[in-house]
Structure formats: structure tokens, C-alpha cells
Specification:
There is one protein chain. The chain is mostly helical and 331 residues long. Among the domains are: 3-174, no CATH class; 189-195 and 203-225. The chain is built from twelve helices and no strands. The protein has helices at residues 3-17, 24-36, 40-47, 54-65, 67-85, 89-116, 123-138, 140-147, 189-194, 203-207, 210-222, 229-330.
């Protein structure tokens, strides 16, 4: 399609990929039908736009509603590439820690954006979103695909190998060319200068005689091409990041081991306290048993005392009545 048609298709696609996942098919059908009245080729292209995966849709929602989050990650990725180029291991370690923090916050933001649209982000979906956002920081092509809002599938990039963008984004021809990943590695500057120019009458032909050019080309063919410096730098950066991750994991493991030791000591103390409490409970139960027996004895004795007092009261009443009778007789 022509460039103008690519932009028209991208404009339609932007609207489709901004819609809810459930509405995508119906919206695509309606958009293709509307485009058919003006451009059949455009309508066919619209109809062929793929439905994104759930995780890719979540990233698209983040690109649409929280673009600053992706902008911050893209800026971080640029700084990481600068540090890689400078072989600054200390900066790479610090940037690696910053990336972990930003990725965690970005996934939380994506989860909120998705929940606002009536969906729940599973742990697997969150992992795919994080992997895609990590690819954004590692690869400029991935960054352009993610920030387009037309992502179709999750991405992966380790900073050494470029992200596989085949079928990863809708309307790839409309992506910004300055951020697209290079497809071919240009030959070294010297090799380009020594290569014969196919055009007639060029400066190269006038200044470089064929007899001298051919041996130099043969030397280039026979000499093994050295490893690409950018690839070596990325490999060293990946090594530095892996070493930092290893050190971080070791620190975490040590912290957990220390916590386990503290908990083990606490458990031992609680067990001892439990033994003491059980001994105290046993003594208290024995004291309670003695007190209950003593109470029973006192209550029995009290009942006897009550009966004796009642008997004494009746005796006193009878004695009093006898005194009254005797007194009446004497009078």
C-alpha cells in the first residue's frame, strides 16, 4: 500500500486497538465496511487486522491511558544503552535496579488500567506485560512497537539479541522510522570506501584503480569479521546485569536465612515459655483442686453449723415458752 494508505490504515487501527477486547471483532467489521465504500484495498487491510492477545491489549491500554509510564521506561532504556556503549558496569548495575523498580510500578499501573476496564490481570498476564515492558527498555524497535498502541503479542528482548517483531505490531509500516530496529548491519567504513562503485564515472572509480581494489576486497573476504562491538558491549552489559541479579539473589537468600535463624530462636523461646506455662497451669490446676476440696469441706461444715444453730434456736424458743408458763402459774 502507498504511504498515505498506510497512515490511513494506522489511523483506523489506532481506534480499533483502543477499544475493549470484547468489542474488537465487531468494531473491525464495522470499520472495514465503512472503508469499503471508499477504498477496497484499505477495507481488506482493515479486515485483516489481527485481534491482540490479552497481555498485548493490556500494554496497549497502558500506552493509550498512561503514555508517560512507557516514556519513562523508554528513557531508562536509552540511558542503559548509553551505559552499555561506555562499558560502565557501575551505572548498569544502578540502572538495573532502577529498571526493576520502574517495571514493578508499571505493571501495577497496567493492572489498575485493566481493572478500570472491567478485567482482572492474572499473574501469568502480569508476567507477560512485565516481559514486554522489559523488552521496551532493551530494544528500540520493541519500544516503537509498544508505544504505538497497536501491539499484537508480547515481546521479549535480553539486551543482546534484538526483539522478534515479526507479526508483533499492526501496521508496522507506520512505525516511526527513527526508532525502528536496524535490519542490516552496515559494513565497516573502510570496507565501504574500498568497495567498487557500480555507477559509471563515479569518484570511486576515478581514484581507486581496479588492480588495487580487487586485492583489498579479497582481503576483506578472507579475513574473519570480528565480533560486532555493540553485540560485545550488550553481552558485557547483560553479564553485569546477571551478576547484579546474582548478588541481589544472594543478599535476599542471606536475609531470608537470617530471618529463619531469628524465627528458629523465637520458636525455641516460645517452646520453653510453653513448657513453663504448662508447669504453671498444672500447679494452678492442683491448687484449684485443693481449693475445691477445701470449699466442699467448709460448705459441709457450714451446713452443719446452720443445722446446729437452727436446733439451738428451737431449744431457746421452747425454753422461753416454759419460762413464761411457769411465771404464769406463780402469779
Amino acid at each position: 500500500m502507498a504511504n498515505m494508505d498506510q497512515q490511513a490504515l494506522a489511523h483506523i487501527a489506532n481506534g480499533l486497538y483502543a477499544a475493549s477486547l470484547e468489542e474488537f471483532i465487531a468494531a473491525r467489521t464495522a470499520a472495514a465496511k465503512e472503508a469499503a465504500g471508499q477504498d477496497r484495498e484499505l477495507a481488506a487491510a482493515v479486515k485483516g487486522l489481527p485481534k491482540p492477545s490479552v497481555a498485548a491489549w493490556a500494554v496497549n491500554m497502558l500506552a493509550l491511558h498512561q503514555p508517560d509510564v512507557l516514556g519513562g521506561l523508554a528513557d531508562l532504556g536509552s540511558r542503559m544503552r548509553d551505559a552499555q556503549a561506555a562499558l560502565d558496569a557501575a551505572a548498569l548495575r544502578e540502572l538495573g535496579r532502577e529498571r526493576r523498580t520502574q517495571l514493578s510500578a508499571a505493571v501495577d499501573t497496567a493492572r489498575s488500567v485493566v481493572e478500570e476496564r472491567g478485567r482482572t490481570m492474572s499473574e501469568a498476564m502480569a508476567a507477560d506485560v512485565e516481559e514486554t515492558l522489559k523488552a521496551l527498555t532493551a530494544d528500540e524497535g520493541a519500544a516503537a512497537a509498544v508505544r504505538s498502541g497497536r501491539l499484537l503479542k508480547t515481546l521479549s528482548a535480553d539486551g543482546v539479541s534484538a526483539a522478534d517483531l515479526e507479526g508483533a505490531v499492526a501496521v508496522p509500516g507506520a512505525l516511526p522510522t527513527h526508532t525502528a530496529p536496524p535490519r542490516l548491519v552496515p559494513p565497516p567504513a573502510k570496507a565501504r570506501a574500498s568497495a567498487p562503485d557500480k555507477k559509471q564515472g563515479t569518484t570511486t572509480e576515478r581514484t581507486s584503480p581496479p588492480a588495487a581494489t580487487k586485492p583489498r576486497l579479497e582481503a576483506v573476504r578472507q579475513t574473519p569479521r570480528p565480533a560486532s562491538p555493540p553485540a560485545l558491549e550488550r553481552a558485557r552489559a547483560a553479564l553485569a546485569e546477571a551478576q547484579e541479579a546474582e548478588a541481589e539473589a544472594a543478599r535476599t537468600a542471606q536475609e531470608l536465612q537470617d530471618k529463619a535463624d531469628e524465627t528458629r530462636t523465637e520458636v525455641a523461646e516460645l517452646l520453653q515459655e510453653t513448657v513453663d506455662l504448662r508447669a504453671r497451669l498444672k500447679a494452678a490446676e492442683q491448687q484449684l483442686d485443693r481449693s475445691r476440696k477445701s470449699l466442699a469441706a467448709v460448705e459441709a461444715e457450714a451446713k452443719q453449723s446452720v443445722r446446729a444453730a437452727e436446733k439451738a434456736r428451737r431449744t431457746a424458743v421452747l425454753a422461753e415458752e416454759r419460762v413464761l408458763r411457769l411465771r404464769d402459774r406463780e402469779t
